[in-house]
Design a protein that fits this description.
heterodimer; A: 601 residues; alpha+beta; six-stranded antiparallel β-sheet; three-stranded antiparallel β-sheet; elongated; B: 859 residues; four-stranded antiparallel β-sheet; membrane (chain A); NPR2-domain-containing protein (chain A); NPR2-like (chain A)
């Protein structure tokens, strides 16, 4: 901490006859007036008015006490040791430090004081570290002086030295290591409080802000973290990462949350061409700041390959770009393809090779050569035009088609990502709302774990069926394939395959396929439940065929209903269900008809 | 403008402590009766930035958060255990405590000078302690919830707490802030004046009384008893006051309506009548001869203490908010009442008496508290205060007939920033830039042009005010006439209300969270579903909406319509008859933060053609005036000036050729300074681009001036600063992540490079242009602020203005320019300039058609 935030450190003691006294203070004169030539002219605080907080009653000892006085904040940790060897059977002292009252994050000093207090307590209990050097001091005091600080010969006291060192080291280096004796060392470090990390959702896309791979020492012994890191590339969603790294989803989330906490990671949304992005109020900053535009131009530029590809990856990149030129498919899908192909090869910050400054030998000269060319190729004006033409209600796909000419040589995914990172774009998520009264009435009970006591004769039939369903829940589908097929194959092949293809061909190539059967929900049943009677179910069941898709869909009992409260974006729904947006929408429309409203927000 | 944090008072208890000569420090009242222990509070300090988790995933991720906070949290927990073991440790502590109490008693004796009175107080308290420790022990065994635990508050022994919360006189009227672990006690101690009065210029002289202690003792204490019995006393007193100094007194009682302003010379004229007043009071008291207890009117200090446990990151903010808005104001109000009627001390004794009795009878705390609150207005006010403030509401405190007031911690009603996934979430907060003050120009008039959106129905509001007091006929009239579709100015004009009155009412309503200033709702404007809408409120909002607008589309339907491609609101209105209802819907949606206006902002785009034209013109001019100077190519210089705004300043700053070496050596420091000011978000968003490592090949170019060199002085940049709504102030409200030294290594994710890699500076990508004056040698650019355009820009704008075919557009071009700076919404133009909306649209379209505008739309 370069701020020299600690204004003073002092050590005060309660003497059974003389009351509370300051024994040591650094700098001199900061707490009580001192005659020393180097002393401060006036004390920072008035010691007398705060003694009751420095040396408080028993109740308040051994905990961190802070209080403000005279625009300073005194942070102390009064220690009270009760032992027979002391006069009046107790020994009370306080090692306190003084900071500015307005200091924003003073709590890290509190931690230091607390630790010091406990340490001193331990040292005193072990060998009388504090009390030993007091011998004679109080007598001197009697003779020498009336008020104020006690006339120690400053050099002789270990506690004084401690005050001095802690002040200097913490102010200069934000940490200190002070050997006390052969078995004790004081290690202190100031840890700034960090904002709490947000909850991590499986549908979020993490992007590292620093190159962790360049760090020499391993960043963590967290195995999940180490496994997960290579797959964090700004494209893969958390769920996808967990799948790729073969790690538990909740552990993956936790690992990513760690990275967010330490500020080395930011969260994006799943990029897809069906998504909508719109401007926030901060677009003004982009338009007005040339430097941001330059940064953007560098970031979104697609590298020129015509000088001959020096690496295989570059070559394949070009090829794939040419292949998909007419469709103007995203760089992101390429990137994800690349990372899919060689997930271990690309462990860098981002898998795309044209990252400026990635520092990989072969690329360097190339980017150099193309630098002039490229950055002038992307005109800032074009960037502004592109960004400002994004708006609510306009999918990326349409936007791309409208702006084909301007997008030449621009990585669309990066263009969007840049806006998100800088905060002048936001993703307009889509939510589904079913009016509450319109929720399917009784039948969906079949999908819940506790069917209501239906008095009809069909109840038994129902129940048996539910039993089947429930039996299936959570198990590997294989065993029960036939059972499910006969009992529940609803919906017909046509839709099922349509859904399947929809899922497969969905543009959200980057991680949509992550959720597999274990995560699947019984969407169809819920969608149908509104109208289906058991009889109908049965007839359908006989009509239906045992398609692989069907099974997957029926894997779990939780219906799509729970997503219809307007709280769950389609990103989330799709991730949970493991299906495409189209599929989910279709199901909702079929199940709820006009009662399902879709809101972009 | 800062990224707002969710309101959260973190208030956990309110304590009233008094110090008197007879009783010493006393914890008179605390609320809630069953307070959580401070130790428990200390461990629970996670900020509520992300609301209550709803999704499945967050449960484990949430629980995980405690894992790595261990550095602080587990330590805290350990600490609690330690504390617990130590305090429960034994009789020893009890002994010292009583010892201290003894010493304390001696002190009390010395100060009070009345052995009898003090003995009464202290004797009791010693008994308390003994009883307390046994009772405590019992409770621990029984595991009862502590409803009979009379001796601890917040997990502290009452007497210890009392002592801690009674600071020395040095804290008079200062902020008293005592932190115990992560709990903080915020108070505003009020001391009696040296002359024994609570207000400057009050009558009685306490010192005199002390001199005459023996004589007055009986009378005074009796008087206090009398006070405690009934309100009649209060009236009597006032009556006396009037008789002794009628005019002043009546004036001052009138002014009591206004809590903050009780300074206006209250009681100055009373000095003359003081003596007689006091005498007669004393006399009357002696007569009203009620006796059970025997206490002195001798309070020397009282301290209202609010106990918070703010998260470490929000500590300063929360404590400051609480102190400035609630603690201090409340204490002031109490002091004012104390000065008038000995309010605090009278009530305190009442409360102490009840507590004493209840404790002796072994009653429960909660029962007793109910009784106290029903009997004592002071206790009741504390309870109200706690209930309201701890739930982020407004506390309406009624002190007595003539004085009631409200307290709140003000909340933000809008924000221009949409928080990203990693920032504090405040769903439901209105998202708009319309409340952002734009620079220096036009601040005040905006209130006039804004409309007032009542957050409650006007009738409810009117009723509320009727409860309040007098001049409400006018107020009710105003409120009833407020419509969100008309600007305040228009309403005022229409109903003959003074503009200033209207504004005053508006600001009052806004401050007390009853209304919001919005741009007048208009069917021609575009509204979108706010990305910050609180979707979790849907389930309750849908039926409310349905009940209110039963024949109209449902809430989800409305939201769905508004969330597709943005269209003017009128396109959703089926027929003219529906117009009013739909505007009501819109107002309702605005109220709940469901929708926000999509506003249009624009800059002027200068095309190469214009630039070429101007350049040619200038060359001609230059030729005409000074033929030798042709070579200088004025256009070139000014041209590059626009492209390289920094160049100009660097020329100014010395005129010597800039080389890369002139780059300030401590660029890193500068950045880190920036970062210290900027929020983490700004570090990503607003902070100047980190020079990428890929540039630099051209750094030897003549025009290669490091951006950083000229930035601070470049007018362009300083202009852009105030506009860019980067949350510059986040630092003050929320902890800045970037202040972490280790994070200076963090690079912008968009221009990553290895940490520690030398940063090469970069330059603008465009090479200097040869001075050919054809459009192909110019690039289009934007005029960021036409009002502050430099000479070249002004010429361009002039040229553009001259190019319009439409006379009307040409005529209004200068007026339009005032709004084409990217910060003034074009929607506001009609009200500001006083032109018809349609006409504005026509003008803007005229300019837009020609392609002169870069238009952005956001809230």
């Amino acid at each position: 901490m370069p701020t020299r935030a600690i204004k003073a450190i002092f050590f005060s003691r309660f003497h059974h006859e003389k009351g509370s006294r300051v024994l040591h203070q650094v700098p001199e004169g900061s707490i009580t007036p001192s005659t020393s030539p180097s002393a401060l002219s006036a004390p920072l605080i008035s010691f007398d008015s705060i003694t009751s907080y420095l040396i408080p009653t028993q109740q308040f000892c051994d905990r961190l006490l802070t209080f403000c006085t005279n625009h300073h904040r005194v942070i102390g940790y009064p220690v009270c040791i009760r032992e027979g060897k002391y006069s009046r059977n107790e020994f009370i002292f306080n090692f306190a430090l003084v900071v500015e009252e307005a200091l924003a994050d003073w709590t890290c000093y509190g931690d230091v004081v607390r630790k010091l207090g406990r340490l001193l307590r331990g040292l005193e209990e072990q060998g009388g570290f504090v009390s030993r050097e007091e011998e004679g001091v109080w007598d001197d005091d009697n003779a020498a002086r009336g008020s104020g600080g006690i006339g120690y010969a400053g050099g002789g006291s270990k506690v004084y030295a401690l005050c001095e060192m802690v002040l200097e080291d913490l102010n200069n280096y934000a940490e200190c290591m002070i050997p006390i004796d052969e078995s004790n060392t004081i290690n202190l470090k100031l840890f700034r409080p960090q904002p709490p990390p947000p909850p991590i959702h499986s549908y979020q896309v993490p992007l590292l802000t620093i190159s962790l791979s360049s760090l020499t020492s391993p960043i963590s012994s967290d195995l999940t973290l180490i496994r997960v890191l290579p797959f964090i590339n700004g494209i893969n969603s958390v769920a996808h990462i967990a799948q790729l790294a073969d790690t538990d989803l909740s552990l993956t989330r936790k690992a990513i949350q760690h990275l967010v906490y330490y500020g080395c990671l930011i969260l994006l949304d799943i990029f897809s061409f069906g998504a909508i992005y719109a401007l926030t109020a901060e677009i003004g900053g982009f338009v007005m700041e040339k430097s941001v535009q330059e940064e953007c131009a560098r970031y979104v530029r697609v590298p020129r390959m015509r000088l001959g590809s020096k690496s295989v990856r570059m070559g394949s990149d070009t090829a794939s770009r040419e292949r998909s030129r007419d469709e103007r498919s995203s760089m992101s899908s390429e990137a994800s393809r690349r990372s899919d192909l060689s997930p271990l090869g690309v462990t860098d910050f981002d898998s795309s090779p044209h990252l400026p400054g990635q520092g990989q030998g072969p690329h360097q000269p190339q980017t150099h050569i193309n630098n002039e060319d490229d950055s002038s190729a992307i005109q800032h004006e074009h960037l502004i035009t592109l960004y400002t033409s994004l708006r609510q209600g306009l999918t990326l796909k349409t936007w791309v088609l409208e702006n084909l000419d301007l997008l030449h040589g621009i990585d669309i995914r990066r263009l969007i990502t840049f806006g998100i990172i800088k905060g002048f774009l936001y993703r307009v998520h889509r939510y589904a709302i079913a009016t509450h009264s319109m929720l399917p009435p009784a039948p969906p009970a079949s999908l819940q774990s506790h069917p209501p006591s239906a008095a009809t004769s069909t109840a038994a039939v129902k129940d048996s069926e539910h039993a089947t369903i429930r039996a299936v829940q959570g198990q590997a589908a294989l065993l029960h394939k036939q059972a499910i097929a006969s009992a529940l194959a609803v919906g017909g092949t046509a839709t099922a395959t349509a859904a399947a293809t929809a899922a497969a061909t969905a543009p959200n190539g980057s991680g949509m396929g992550a959720g597999t059967n274990s995560e699947n929900r019984d969407v169809r049943s819920s969608a149908y439940a509104q109208t289906e009677t058991p009889q109908r179910l049965e007839s359908l069941a006989s009509a239906g065929n045992a398609d692989g898709e069907d099974e997957d869909e029926d894997g779990d009992g939780l219906p799509l209903v729970r997503f219809l409260d307007g709280m769950h974006s389609f990103d989330e729904i799709c991730m949970e269900v493991g299906k495409s947006e189209k599929w989910a929408e279709e199901r909702m429309r079929r199940g709820w008809g006009a009662d399902a409203q879709f809101v972009w927000r | 403008m800062a990224l707002p944090l969710p309101p959260s008072s973190n208030l956990h208890a309110v304590l009233l402590v008094t110090k008197s000569r007879s009783l010493g420090p006393r914890l008179v009242f605390h609320y809630p009766p069953l307070s959580p222990s401070a130790a428990a509070l200390a461990t629970n300090t996670a900020p509520t930035w992300f609301g209550n988790e709803t999704s499945t995933g967050s449960i484990d991720s949430h629980s995980s958060s405690s894992d790595w906070d261990s550095s602080t949290e587990t330590e805290g927990a350990d600490d609690d255990i330690e504390i617990g073991s130590r305090t429960s440790g034994g009789r020893g502590s009890g002994r010292t405590a009583s010892h201290r109490a003894d010493s304390h008693r001696h002190k009390g004796l010395g100060a009070g000078g009345s052995a009898a009175g003090n003995a009464w107080g202290r004797q009791e308290s010693i008994d308390e302690e003994d009883a307390g420790s046994t009772a405590e022990g019992k409770q621990k065994h029984r595991g009862v919830g502590g409803d009979r635990d009379w001796n601890t508050v917040l997990g502290f022994k009452v007497d210890a707490l009392e002592k801690m919360l009674c600071p020395t006189k040095a804290f008079n009227k200062r902020r008293f802030e005592l932190g115990v672990e992560s709990c903080v006690f915020v108070g505003a101690p009020m001391f009696v004046r040296e002359d024994g009065m609570w207000k400057k210029g009050r009558r009685r002289k306490r010192k005199e009384r002390e001199v005459a202690n023996g004589d007055l003792l009986a009378g005074l204490s009796l008087r206090e008893e009398g006070n405690g019995v009934a309100h009649a006393e209060e009236d009597e007193k006032q009556g006396e006051g009037k008789s002794s100094a009628p005019p002043t007194r009546s004036v001052s009682t009138d002014s009591f309506e206004y809590p903050v302003g009780f300074e206006p010379g209250y009681g100055h004229g009373l000095m003359s009548g003081a003596a007689s007043g006091a005498a007669s009071e004393a006399g009357s008291d002696t007569r009203s001869n009620s006796t059970t207890e025997n206490a002195l009117d001798d309070m020397t200090m009282f301290n209202v203490v609010f106990v918070l446990n703010p998260p470490a990151l929000e500590y300063q903010l929360r404590v400051k908010e609480m102190y400035d808005n609630v603690t201090r104001k409340y204490a002031k109000a109490l002091k004012y009442e104390q000065a008038r009627f000995q309010y605090v001390w009278r009530e305190s004794k009442k409360v102490i008496g009840i507590k004493q009795r209840a404790k002796e009878n072994g009653e429960t705390l909660s029962g007793t508290w109910r009784e106290i609150i029903s009997v004592s207005p002071l206790a009741k006010s504390i309870a109200i205060m706690f209930d309201a403030i701890s739930h982020e509401k407004i506390a309406h405190i009624h002190f007595d007939r003539t004085f009631s007031t409200s307290f709140q911690i003000p909340q933000r009603d809008s924000t221009p920033f949409l928080p990203n996934a990693m920032e504090p979430q405040m769903p439901g907060l209105w998202l708009t830039t319309s409340n952002v003050a734009i620079g220096d120009d036009l601040d005040a008039p905006m209130t006039q042009h804004a409309a007032l959106l009542l957050l409650q129905d006007s009738e409810i509001l009117v009723k509320e005010f009727e409860g309040d007091s007098k001049a409400n006929a006018f107020l009710a009239f105003c409120i009833r006439n407020i419509v969100p579709t008309k600007s305040l100015q228009k309403i005022a004009l229409k109903h003959n209300i003074l503009g200033a009155d209207m504004e005053y009412i508006a600001s009052h309503l806004v401050y007390w969270r009853r209304a919001r200033l919005i741009a007048p709702l208009h069917p021609r404007d575009t509204y979108i579903v706010s990305p910050n809408a609180d979707m979790s409120a849907l389930p309750s909002a849908i039926p409310t909406f349905a009940a209110r607008f039963s024949t109209l589309p449902s809430l989800p339907k409305m939201l769905s319509m508004l969330s597709s491609t943005p269209r003017p609101y009128k396109t959703f209105i089926p027929t003219n008859e529906h117009r009013e209802a739909y505007m009501d819907i819109l107002a309702w949606l605005m109220r709940g933060g469901w929708v926000t206006q999509l506003r249009t902002f624009a800059w002027v785009r200068v095309t190469p053609e214009i630039k070429a034209l101007v350049a040619q013109e200038m060359e001609r001019e230059a030729l005409a005036t000074n033929p030798e100077n042709v070579r200088r190519h004025p256009s070139d210089d000014s041209q590059s000036e626009i492209f390289f705004p920094d160049k100009r300043s660097s020329f100014l700053s010395g005129g010597r050729p800039s080389t890369p070496l002139r780059r300030p050596p401590r660029r890193d420091d500068e950045d880190s300074e920036n970062n210290a000011i900027l929020s983490p978000r700004a570090a990503y968003r607003g902070s100047p681009a980190r020079p990428g490592s890929d540039a630099g090949s051209t750094s030897s170019n003549r025009t290669a001036i490091p951006l950083s060199a000229g930035r601070p002085t470049s007018p362009m940049h300083t202009q852009s600063k105030p506009h860019r709504p980067s949350p510059l102030h986040l630092k003050t409200t929320s902890p800045s992540r970037s202040s972490n030294p280790s994070l200076h290594a963090v690079l912008s994710p968009t221009s990553p490079s290895m940490p520690g890699q030398a940063q090469t500076h970069h330059r603008s990508p465009s090479p200097p242009l040869p001075a050919h004056l054809t459009p192909s040698h110019f690039r289009a650019s934007l005029v960021l602020s036409p009002q502050k355009a430099n000479a070249m820009e002004a010429r361009w704008l002039e040229k553009i203005g001259a190019s319009f075919d439409d006379d009307e557009v040409r005529e209004h071009w200068p007026m339009l320019l005032r709004h084409l700076d990217g910060r003034h919404a074009l929607e506001d133009m009609n009200t500001r300039e006083g032109i018809k909306r349609k006409r504005v649209a026509g003008l803007v379209n005229g300019v837009r058609k020609e392609g002169w505008l870069v238009i952005v739309r956001h809230w």
